[in-house]
Write a structure and sequence with these properties.
Largest sheet of chain A: none
CATH class of chain A: Mainly Alpha
Strand order of the largest sheet of chain B: 2-1-5-3-4
Number of domains of chain A: 1
Largest interface: A-B, 44 and 50 residues
CATH superfamily of the largest domain in chain B: Alpha-helical ferredoxin
CATH architecture of the largest domain in chain B: Orthogonal Bundle
Distance between the termini of chain A: 68 Å
Number of helices of chain A: 10
Radius of gyration of chain B: 20 Å
Order of helices and strands of chain A: HHHHHHHHHH
Strand content of chain B: 5-15%
CATH topology of chain A: 3 helical TM bundles of succinate and fumarate reductases
Oligomer: heterodimer
Structural class of chain B: alpha+beta
Number of helices of chain B: 8
Distance between the termini of chain B: 57 Å
Helix content of chain B: 25-40%
CATH topology of the largest domain in chain B: Fumarate Reductase Iron-sulfur Protein, Chain B, domain 2
Number of strands of chain B: 7
Radius of gyration of chain A: 21 Å
CATH architecture of chain A: Up-down Bundle
Helix content of chain A: over 70%
Shape of chain B: elongated
Largest sheet of chain B: 5 strands, mixed
Strand content of chain A: under 5%
Chain lengths: 236, 248
């Protein structure tokens, strides 16, 4: 075997060049992002703790200067995952569009796979949501964020979330984005198995059901917070 | 019964085409779809007009020659059926049907409803075969094959290469066709020596033909006249990944 063929970088590039390689990259980065979505939700659910200080203690733990290196390492990995996921999807989308230059006068969509056909809509809207979300509750570019004792390392998450979600437009956008995320995750969570070559007539239908249940649970968990604020269940 | 047809008419690959409306007042419900087109073509010929060009051969649903989009569904509304095996009894009096050729960059229109599917032939030539020393037929059962593998391989081998999967796929992807061919040979002992190189070569050829890629939507599976399942695409992915990464 020649030196170029065993060079791992060259092999990785050749693998990525193929559409199946890009789909594998989307599946692997998808797993990482789903993992983060679940972890993030579990952290957020602490807002329902009887003690309002619970979620602020959690935020202080994350923002502790001592954990800055792992925090930024995780942020870096997630950002890289997002970049790879989006880059691969845009490249595939352009290729797929070019594969049918002349469309049909009449086209029917046979199976009920709305989520699959709308991945390229749910994806960018969720992406725009993430940017807004970071500006809204991490950077504080939408509303000024409150800190405990003026220390930026101990944000008053409880108060910021409740003040933030009292705006019905903001809450509405969060809920819409979470419904789209639910559809995106449903298709993504079973489809990633297919992309890496795992499919079985007996288990794939169960996998689809499992993906649907998990996607709906994530959506319920995420939507519950703005709803709880707007209905007054969560208040200052 | 009365059927109104809107058919894509295109004189040749170079010219622009358009939809043309035809009315057939006396269609028998016992006719096959292609027999109805035969009747239309007889009328057009009598009137001195150019008949509608469409591909067909066996008219038994086994050769893979025929196929057109009927109201936006490849091979028409009946699942697991080629266009030639679709009968007019599945339509109602007064139905309006839109007939269009398969649309894909890799399948250029030759004339009317006829498209050039030689891209599929080039994919097969790239690796959809097994290399064996030819000679007299081997003894039956000389090579034992597991029952399950034999069944799955035969299911994949049912692919007739009609191109409906490409036509229906929003991405114009040939993945179901590729997967069927790769699974058919990759499941049998005779297909093992070239299993990985086959997947790589066929996938690479499909890329050169400018087919799209799979986004796991499943429209191909829904219109496949031979009921090939999405599972074969996972099998293709697996063989491809194994070949490229040396894992799996």
């Amino acid at each position: 075997m020649s030196a170029i063929a065993i060079n791992p970088i060259y092999r990785a590039v050749r693998f990525y060049e193929a559409p199946i390689g890009k789909k594998v990259v989307m599946a692997v980065t998808g797993v990482m992002l789903v993992g983060y979505v679940i972890g993030h939700l579990l952290g957020n659910l602490q807002i329902y703790s009887a003690n309002p200080e619970q979620i602020n203690r959690y935020a202080a733990f994350l923002h502790n200067p001592a954990s800055a290196i792992p925090l930024w390492a995780i942020r870096g990995v997630l950002l890289l995952a997002v970049v790879l996921h989006v880059t691969a999807s845009v490249q595939l989308w352009l290729q797929n569009r070019a594969a049918r230059p002349i469309g049909y006068v009449k086209k029917d969509d046979v199976p009920a796979s709305y989520a699959a056909r709308t991945m390229l809509w749910s994806g960018p809207i969720v992406g725009a949501f993430i940017v807004f979300h970071v500006l809204h509750l991490t950077v504080g570019a939408v509303l000024p964020l409150e800190d405990i004792n003026g220390n930026p390392n101990t944000p008053n998450v409880y108060e910021n979330v409740i003040l933030g979600f009292q705006n019905p437009w903001v809450s509405g956008f969060y809920i819409l984005a979470m419904i789209l995320l639910c559809m995106h995750l449903y298709h993504g969570m079973w489809s990633m198995f297919q992309s890496v070559g795992i499919s079985h007539p007996r288990y794939t239908p169960k996998l689809k059901t499992g993906a649907a249940i998990l996607a709906i649970l994530i959506a319920i968990g995420n939507c519950s917070i703005p709803i709880a604020v707007m209905t007054g269940l969560l208040h200052l | 019964m009365r059927i109104i047809l809107h058919i894509w008419r295109q004189r040749n690959a170079g010219e622009k085409g358009r939809m043309v409306r035809y009315e057939l007042p006396n269609v028998s419900e016992h006719m096959s779809f292609l027999e109805m087109l035969d009747v239309l073509n007889e009328e057009l010929t009598m009137k001195g007009e150019e008949p509608v060009a469409f591909d067909h051969d066996c008219r038994e649903g086994i050769c893979g020659m025929c196929g057109a989009m009927v109201n936006g569904i490849a091979h028409g509304p009946l699942p697991g059926t080629t266009l030639c095996q679709l009968h007019m009894r599945h339509f109602k009096d007064g139905d309006e049907l839109y007939l269009e050729p398969w649309r894909a960059r890799a399948f250029p229109v030759v004339k009317d409803l006829v498209v050039d599917r030689s891209a599929f032939d080039r994919i097969i030539a790239a690796g959809g075969f097994i290399s064996v020393a030819t000679g007299s037929a081997p003894d039956g059962n000389a090579i034992p094959v597991q029952k399950e593998s034999a069944e799955n391989s035969m299911d994949a081998a049912a692919c007739i290469g009609c191109g409906a999967c490409v036509a229906m796929c929003p991405n114009a992807s040939a993945s179901l066709f590729l997967g069927a061919k790769i699974a058919h040979l990759g499941l049998l002992p005779q297909g093992q020596p070239e299993r990985e190189s086959r997947a790589v070569a066929m996938v690479a050829q499909a890329n050169r033909e400018l087919f799209g890629s799979c986004t796991n939507i499943g429209e191909c599976e829904a219109v496949c006249p031979k009921d090939i399942k999405l599972e074969v695409i996972a099998r293709m992915n697996r063989d491809f990944i194994r070949a490229k990464c040396g894992v799996g």
